[in-house]
Amino acid sequence: MKQYLDLCKHILEYGVEKGDRTGTGTKSVFGYQMRFDLSEGFPLMTTKKTAFRLIVSELLWFLKGDTNVKTLIEANNHIWDEWAFEKWVNSDKYTGPDMSNFGVRASKDPEFKVVLKEQMKLFCDKILSDESFAKEFGDLGPVYGRQWRSWPTQNGETIDQLENLIEGIQNNPDSRRHIITAWNPAEVDDMALPPCHSFMQFYVANGKLSCQLYQRSADVFLGVPFNIASYALLVHLIARECKLEVGEFVHTLGDAHIYSNHFEQVETQLARSPRPLPTLLLNEEKSSIFDFEIEDITIEGYDPHPKIKAPIAV
């Protein structure tokens, strides 16, 4: 994963200090590209342990067109909790302790962090036990899964971009229109978080499937390692269904930034040497991307350095 470490070094050396929506502050560069040859191994971060199971469950959540965190929480995946939690604590139905700016406050105040953890657990428990609460506060709006699987049209119908993409690759592999977009200007204001990884294009050549992703906003320490692995997995799944080998994953970043409260963690990671990439294993009995479950997707030979914790900016 030298490509990723080079990105981190580039931002630390050439990045400009910028404010941001969360109030945390960043070092940022604009316009950066990484390329990963997927035949050389599965690009899961080795300079820090990265939770592959969370990557799998999130991608399958997208693929099923789901937008409610309940499904993720049931799979013990909490990477979207903060955005749903924010919706609850900002509503007139929330009566607990003040949770304003909770992401930044928790990184600076250990006592508040304990209170936040208690409220977050209460929130997750209510999501799992109360259907009406989950429907009201667990849904993130028309985020990725909605746009991928049921993009709304003006006449009230929907477009399944993913199904259309697979059919297009199978029937017209040389087309330059193998595209899925998650950026829907008509609905972006209704999303808990406007899509960061917003546009992807697939390309077939020499019997191999490649994908280029345009990511408008890239949280380099926490988010990008997940994004790399998630889209690499997506390429593998679509290639399997279309009877193709895997080619490249090309990752093009718009605003690539390191949050100011991640600088120390990035330096720790840069001091580590990359290890061999793991191998992706897909259940041979499954061929359709729509049939895969979490247990059908595993890796072997993953020997990363220890996990590095960092606060998430919400």
Automatic annotation (TrEMBL):
It comes from the Bacteria. Its EC number is 2.1.1.45. InterPro entries: Thymidate_synth/dCMP_Mease, Thymidate_synth/dCMP_Mease_dom, Thymidate_synth/dCMP_Mease_sf, Thymidylate_synthase, Thymidylate_synthase_AS. It catalyses: dUMP + (6R)-5,10-methylene-5,6,7,8-tetrahydrofolate = 7,8-dihydrofolate + dTMP. Catalyzes the reductive methylation of 2'-deoxyuridine-5'-monophosphate (dUMP) to 2'-deoxythymidine-5'-monophosphate (dTMP) while utilizing 5,10-methylenetetrahydrofolate (mTHF) as the methyl donor and reductant in the reaction, yielding dihydrofolate (DHF) as a by-product. This enzymatic reaction provides an intracellular de novo source of dTMP, an essential precursor for DNA biosynthesis. HAMAP family: Thymidy_synth_bact. This is Thymidylate synthase. It comes from Psychrobacillus faecigallinarum. The lineage of its organism: Bacteria, Bacillati, Bacillota, Bacilli, Bacillales. The gene is thyA.
